[in-house]
Amino acid sequence: MPSEKTIYLPNSNLFKNAYINTFEQYKELHKHSIDNPEEFWGEIAKQFYWETPIDIDKFCTYNFDFRKGPIFTKWFDGATTNISYNLLDRNVRNGHGDKIAYYWEGNHPDDYSRLTYKKLLEQVCKFANVLKSKGIKKGDRVAVYMPMILESIVTLLACARIGAIHSLVFAGFSADSFAERIMDCNARVLITADGVWRGEKHLALKSICDQAMEKCAKSGHNVEHCIVVSHLGRVTSPAGVQLNQSNKTPMRHGRDEWWQDLIETASSLCYPEWLQAEDPLFMLYTSGSTGKPKGVIHTTGGYMVYAATTFKYVFDYKPNEVYWCTADIGWITGHTYVVYGPLANAATSVLFEGTPFYPDNDRFWRVVEKYKVNQFYTAPTAIRALMKFDNELVQRHNLSSLRVLGSVGEPINPEAWMWYYKYVGNEKCSIVDTFWQTETGGHVITPLPGATPMKPGSASFPFFGVQVVLLDECGKEIEGEGEGYLVFNRPWPGLMRTLYNNHDRYENTYFNKFPGYYCTGDGARRDANGYLWVTGRVDDMLNVSGHLMSTAEVESVLTEHRGISEAAVVAKPHPVKGECLYCFVTTNDHTKFDDKLLNELKKLVRERIGPFAQPDVIQNAPQLPKTRSGKIMRRILRKVAINNRNIGDPSKSFTNEMSVITLQFGQCGN
Ligand code: PRX
What we know:
Helix content is 32%, strand content 22%. The protein is built from 19 helices and 30 strands. Helix 17 links the parallel strand 29 and strand 30 (617-620). The longest helix is centred in the first third of the chain and has 17 residues, at 117-133. It starts with 22 loop residues before the first helix and ends with a helix. Bound molecules: adenosine-5'-monophosphate-propyl ester. It comes from Aquatica leii.
């Protein structure tokens, strides 16, 4: 295994023509972006169309210090634009109309299609008109619960075209979680599909939406329109699997309508709504350490410029290349690097509906070979699952088109890094270990593939415009080598602006601990060469297969069970998932801790949150260790979790892992 000192240089042949091809060039440009953001970002912003131009006096204003007043960040304030115009109309005008925007690869290898920029624009205009006909206008929220199909991309861009705020919820969340999010953002329109195949598993998306809408109605919130893509009928079912009649999609008269019926008669002309650069583009929920999910708000102008710039430089994307990000659009990775970043660069992407394990465990490599993918972006958990199989599954495919291999969602351990480098990248590709968050909008710490000498396991250096600071417990900046809280002292264009309807929580969560800094909630170490190593969360958050969740959120579900009086959840390291959930529960006097209770608790977590949150271990704890003030001592529980050897039947555990990864990365998520 490589040590911290081992360095891999970018392959000079592959990166001769890289946008940034020396480390010196990166350093110079980074310095320029910090010293003169107006010039650096201004030059980039010129490539986009602004209906009202950027005013240099209002280029970027912010306050990160609550002692000086409310926290805010604004970029290009007063300028107006439309992101769907810039991603579609502008590209069509620049001669990319017949270029393929997406190769769609279905769950079953027999299902595939493609969509050009011109056709995408037409579909987006049509659907934008459908949304308008349902009364949707600028600022309204649209709830989306969709699989990895082309209509999902169309939906997001149609919302953006008319200024509606899309709120996409990952289609692996339960009906309860979805209902909570629909109500929080007060969405009156919901877009979904009848269902989807994931490997050999059928997910009845519309019936999950029905349950969610029922829950909303019980709390007095009515979803007025539900638009459903008819998808199952046009795809191949996995061999031998037949859906029975009861799987037919029920449609409620007056509320539910088929996408295909609505789109047929819609006009393909839709003038874009010119939005303020600081108008919200979308919201996306992320877990909060106190339980209730937070609706992270990203705005139009800054997000557009940042998504475009990170995509271009971090993947070194060149015209005519084919790029593939396996993340589900339900996560920020899908938003920024399946939809907005690639389209802003007129890129050709693969949109993959399936899983890494169907029909065989070489599906990823088959798809890379089929489309001659140049940039491949996935998560460490998927890599760790795939490296368990025979390397021959990789080697039987021609992967010579690959240049850049990306990683996102959690720290990549050196073993997984080496396997990715050696077997997938054939020791010639650059690996970009991209550190970022739902809140950061795009990559903030990452190597650049033609420039940064790589250290396996290190996300390396900040992206342009980003200045990393490490703070000690007292809030003092750590210069040079050292470890501390990972914070930022200034905004870049893609940083979140607020939390939906809750600016106080935004200030408290991200800016309260250290006045003057945005706090990521992660720790990091800077080594002697200045490389940054993200060490993981410093708050009560867990990262299971790249999916962030709070201990509080799982604890509150466990204590909903009438047999449980108290619960504490900690993270336990896991060889594939990165971390898994280790739960301690105290039963009340009348409840026996037996298999029945265990199954009920697991089911409860699946129902309330989603399958990916299912605990790996639930341990009976007649008493939880507490401080004198009554706080649970998680430090002790974490030790117990690490020492516990009772992790159940490993074969079962692997099936479980695969379904979590399938859910999040296969179907295409983080
Ligand atoms: O803990 C960090 C981890 O994932 C968190 C962000 O999760 P989320 O908002 O769901 O967004 C994930 C996709 C961008 C971070 O606070 N994380 C993400 N990428 C890395 C990482 N930790 C280490 N290295 C990474 N490359």
